[in-house]
From TrEMBL:
Protein name in the entry: Coenzyme A biosynthesis bifunctional protein CoaBC
General function of this protein: Catalyzes two sequential steps in the biosynthesis of coenzyme A. In the first step cysteine is conjugated to 4'-phosphopantothenate to form 4-phosphopantothenoylcysteine. In the second step the latter compound is decarboxylated to form 4'-phosphopantotheine. Catalyzes two steps in the biosynthesis of coenzyme A. In the first step cysteine is conjugated to 4'-phosphopantothenate to form 4-phosphopantothenoylcysteine, in the latter compound is decarboxylated to form 4'-phosphopantotheine.
Gene Ontology molecular function: FMN binding; metal ion binding; phosphopantothenate--cysteine ligase activity; phosphopantothenoylcysteine decarboxylase activity
Reactions performed catalytically: N-[(R)-4-phosphopantothenoyl]-L-cysteine + H(+) = (R)-4'-phosphopantetheine + CO2; (R)-4'-phosphopantothenate + L-cysteine + CTP = N-[(R)-4-phosphopantothenoyl]-L-cysteine + CMP + diphosphate + H(+)
Pathway(s) of this molecule: Cofactor biosynthesis; coenzyme A biosynthesis; CoA from (R)-pantothenate: step 3/5; Cofactor biosynthesis; coenzyme A biosynthesis; CoA from (R)-pantothenate: step 2/5
Record key words, sorted: Decarboxylase, Flavoprotein, FMN, Ligase, Lyase, Magnesium, Metal-binding, Multifunctional enzyme
GO biological process: coenzyme A biosynthetic process; pantothenate catabolic process
Residues of the full protein shown: 180 to 402 of 406
Reported cofactor(s): FMN; Mg(2+)
Species of origin: Paenibacillus protaetiae
Residues annotated as binding CTP: D99, K109, F143, K157, K161
Cellular component annotations (GO), alphabetically ordered: phosphopantothenoylcysteine decarboxylase complex
Cofactor: binding details: Binds 1 FMN per subunit.
Keyword Calcium appears in the UniProt entry: no
Amino acid sequence: RQEQKLAGKKVLVTAGGTMERIDPVRYITNDSSGKMGFAIAEAARLMGADVTIVAGRTSVQPPGGVKVVRVESAQQMLEAVQARYGDSDIVIKAAAVADYRPVHVHSRKMKKSDDKLVLELEKTADILATLGAAKQGQFLVGFAAETDQVEQYAMDKLNRKHCDLIVANDVSADGAGFNVDTNVVQVYGPEGLVEALPLMSKRETAVRLLAIIAARMERRHSG
Ligand code: PMT
């Protein structure tokens, strides 16, 4: 039994990948399985938190004992998260959100015609940045999936998006990132590197991350 360090706290976790529709049967998505976000949700529940998951497309089952809100697109994820933001103490954004979506969503299945097809894409809303700009005391944790210059990009995201922590994920490292049961992450705070976690299960990664969050929240309240 874990220590109930998050008892009474409302934790909102995003998990999985968004799906951006092209037509009724086709969409753009990514390899996120939901494993990382679900592991965080489960670990938070075991620490006594009241947990809600906003989940996109996932390939594993969510944990029991938590609320699950299903969404498809980045826009729907934004709306679902915004609706619950004011009532959340901790928000952890482990989802892999599409950066671009098709400009036109065809209402009927697209027909084959020319040899080449160009899909026009437009930027999606940046959910993490939107939350960062609207912060009212929430503890905001972002992820950063990078393949190079991990520290520089992580610190840049932390500052630009007003996060309290950034979990940097070198998704090119063995046993790390999308769709595997393990991860290798470095946790950054406003002061720089907080902890570099070695290769471990996503469950264990989640427990270690939540321990850092709980300690910082405790310090915030006592200081
Ligand atoms: O689900 P799994 O298979 O277990 O894989 C886990 C994971 C690799 C998906 C996860 O550990 C991870 O790294 N998630 C973040 C992936 C990502 O989209 O990273 P990014 O660097 O593109 O985005 C940075 C942050 O901004 C993320 O917190 C993301 O949720 C957020 N974002 C991104 C784009 C956007 N339009 N809105 C956002 O809020």
